[in-house]
Amino acid sequence: MIVATALVMLMTLPGLALFYGGMAKKKDTLNTIGMSFVAYALVSVIWVIYGYSLAFNTDISGIIGSPSKVFLRGVDTNSLQGTIPEFIFVVFQLTFAAITVALISGSYIERMKFSAWVLFSILWVSLVYVPVAHWVWGGGFLAKLGALDFAGGTVVHINAGIAGLVGALLLGRRKEPVLIPSNLPMVVLGTGLLWFGWFGFNAGSALASNSLAAVAFLNTNTATAVASISWMFTEWLHAKKPTILGLASGAIAGLVAITPAAGFVNVMGAIVIGIVAGIVPYFMVAVVKHKLGYDDALDVFGIHGVAGILGAILTGVFADPSINEAGKGLLYGNPGQVFIQLVAVGTTIVYDAVMTFIIFMVVKALVGLKVNGDEEVVGLDKSQHGESAYNIS
Question: What is the pTM of this model?
């Protein structure tokens, strides 16, 4: 679990930071990386003060955890979460919270004030992530309903995707709303680190070194590979060229879609999920987004939101009780599981959208949201930090 936790930390720093930073414009690379960096640092502090207690402590009315473990009061070297030391469980869940916040930044890059991002991160992890994590994983009402989310399809990816979409709509379009990666090798490196770290994300969610972790590990790799290939061929047929960015995007979509299902489905389920994850998010990113005209800079909603929704619903279809007795899906005689998954997805979307809107209004009133036009043209590396990613004469 120590290794799995370290792997999930690697997903944010440097994995996601490089993935997003490489896709940003050259003049915004450092700011984009910095958004992931500061999100990890902020959440790390908030989590040990009150986030963990409110997410994973004794349930209160299905809504939130008891505050009795603020500052980790009562957690000591003898405390266990299942069979592992509770201190390790605290840090493991901390890394999930941190990457969820960092993921959202991809929708906001190249135009959001750094001060606004800092304030947003503090409010959003506290008011959105913590309650939803409790509902699904901490014994809250969605857990009691029987919602299945092995490693974060709902808690992490739908949550991040919806927040990304709402924030992108409120921020408005950039002056140059294009996606031409300034450093594609950096994007590929970030993708590789995310894929690698995701083994800790999904397999580690078994909270043990056992056969369930092994299944989650295999399913994660299989669905990711299939989605990458599926995206590549979809793009090849639709746009006439298979791009390396497409291969990377497909891999991320596959990782997202298999996340809620990793410890519930067999390998055939993982393959089907991978195929779907390479096709539907592609058209969301390549066609639907442009028709609707919103500026989700790095397609957080198109990939994380859409693939997260697909993965959550398909978990209700393919959950195989021979893999995990806690989950039985439509194909194994339990059509009600699909309905439960839809309830969990819908609840998360509505709550997240409303709260993200409110948080944005608060941030706007306190510090403002968007840099001015001149600062955007100069680039946020210079205007927000006084630095440059590439000091080459």
Answer: 0.97
